[in-house]
Write a structure and sequence with these properties.
Elements: H1 8-16, H2 28-32, H3 43-52, H4 55-62, H5 66-69, H6 75-79, H7 86-99, H8 105-125, H9 130-141, H10 148-156, H11 170-181
Helix pairs in contact: 8-9, 8-11
The protein binds iron/sulfur cluster (2 copies).
Length: about 180
């Protein structure tokens, strides 16, 4: 017997206070999503899947590529007539997926290392330090030669600063990261 507290529908509501039942499947979120073509199911389908509240469907969501392909642009939220914060739901689902070790195999190769590299740049500099992100990403994926010519061209054009531009008061940032980790 499945403990209903563990189904995503209830967890999303209890943990981040979003009621997915408000979704009435108008499809506006997926129609505006710039990366829906790369998702295994779109945001509106995902909302319906969460609403169903079945363990087997929850697992499909946590194993999906959809939750890693999302670029958190917020277009879905701005278009949703019910103001459902899909990027926040997706962030939460990523966390659940990692906790349960259900990361999508395809995403695990490139997307998840990129997420870690991106987050570490924010954590240590407070900004996106492109060279830092690229070096960490390449070390994580062993994908050393991808986009090298593009990087060189950007460097020549002065688009890739050698040193990070670190923000003041980084301790506020570490507070957020510690809180999130908890
Ligand atoms: S936040 Fe994610 S799901 Fe929403 S429109 Fe942007 S990419 Fe698509
Ligand atoms: S836009 Fe909002 S109400 Fe419409 S399908 Fe997407 S989440 Fe549901």
């Amino acid at each position: 017997m499945v403990d209903k507290k563990n189904i995503l529908r209830v967890k999303v509501s209890n943990s981040i206070g979003i009621n997915v039942d408000k979704c009435y499947q108008c499809g506006k979120c997926s129609a505006g999503c710039p990366v829906s073509g790369n998702m295994d199911f779109t945001s509106s389908v995902m909302m319906r899947m969460i609403q169903i509240g079945e363990e087997i469907i929850d697992k499909q969501i946590l194993r999906s590529q959809t939750i890693w392909v999302c670029i958190s642009c917020g277009i879905c939220l701005s278009r949703c007539p019910m103001e459902i914060d899909i990027p926040e739901i997706i962030d939460y689902l990523r966390q659940c997926s990692l906790e349960k070790k259900m990361q999508n195999k395809k995403s695990e190769r490139n997307i998840i290392p990129f997420h870690y590299s991106f987050l570490n740049s924010i954590k240590y500099t407070g900004r996106i330090y492109e060279i830092g992100v690229a070096v960490e990403y390449k070390l994580r994926t062993f994908n050393f030669f991808q986009d090298l010519s593009l990087a060189f061209y950007m460097f020549i054009k002065g688009k890739l600063p050698l040193f990070p531009n670190i923000i003041k008061n980084r301790k506020h940032l570490s507070f957020f990261f510690k809180k999130y980790k908890k």
